[in-house]
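Continuing the series of single-chain predictions for the mutant panel. This is the parent chain; the variants come on the following pages.
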Amino acid sequence: ISLPSLSWHQSICLLKAVARRYHSSAQTRAPISWTYSSLLHQKVFNIAYLSSDFGAHTTGVNILGLFKNTASNMHRTMCISLAPDDGSPTAQAFREVCHEFHDVASRSPIHVAKLVNSLGAVATIDLNGYTHGAQSEILALKPTKVTFFDQGFAAPSGGLASHFNSDRVSLSVEMSRDISEKITYMPFFANPLNDYRNLASYVLKGKPKSRGEIGLQSTGALFAMFSNAYKVTSDTIDAWARALKGTEGSLWVPEWGGSAELPDRLRKAFSARGIAHPQIVQSTKLLPREWHLLGRAAADVLLDTPAVNGHGTVSESLWAGLPVLTVAGDKISNRIGSNLCLHSPSRVLIARNIEVRAGLIASHFRSKSCPIKNVRARARTHTHTHVRTCIGKL
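Parent structure:
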């Protein structure tokens, strides 16, 4: 859905086709007589959250923070887990924080839909979307009148859900005209990191790590790239190569998961583009969780990937005081970086296109007062001020 070759309109057409397929599958089943809970006269609302990621996953961490920070007597949180317990502390915390936790990993979509309906939920929120582990047919069965796509999938459902959660930067007015669902607009960002209390304390108390402590070359400009390998396209590599050619700049690319081979692939790609600088790509192992934000500050700037932006990657880098250079794209998946940067000193680093971004990178080597250097000088101070404000609100 987020392929660079697909336009926004093509993506929407594809999503609508997927939704029609799920609706068609649901209609072939024997008719189900649902009893829907009414919002009228209810003092407490039951909300069902569907996900295969209630564990050590970015979505799990984010939504756990949301549950912790939005505890209310007005609603009850019911987690419907579509995957087996991964044994992580996050998975255990869900069982303690939510009002009800139902493990339905071995159950069919129709069984799960009947469970949600029997719980008296007024809304079903699908945190997977069309991603690995999802059971989208559950929404097609309409166990509640109100259904949402949220968090795990940076695109609408194509009409499978009744509502879509977004914001006015990620989803522009022009783009919203193509959406089948009713849109609920969040005031800032529809999919934030929600463990602010821990992040804030961590950034305020910690001391940034040096490049030597991380195992990086201590001199020269260092551009970080922390995204998954599938987000790095040939156009992106071309732009990086044009900006870095003839400089002493390096690209910092950690080796992790499905991206373990990316540093070597990038070295070969840069070599093929005429860049023989031996340190053009510096690689390290994935930084330890307990100080990975403090380690990020060793770079000069994070290069967001234009095809598919970083979500948690960009958020955490901004919290670490690391400037982010991004491009405003034409789909939700590549406009999220712009939205996050818009509310930070990195707003001046939002480029109109990939060529403008390449120019900003190149200016880092030509000018002592380039935008990247100016933002970096203010970013950590801004982060400290902002996180203190967040701690006060929490």
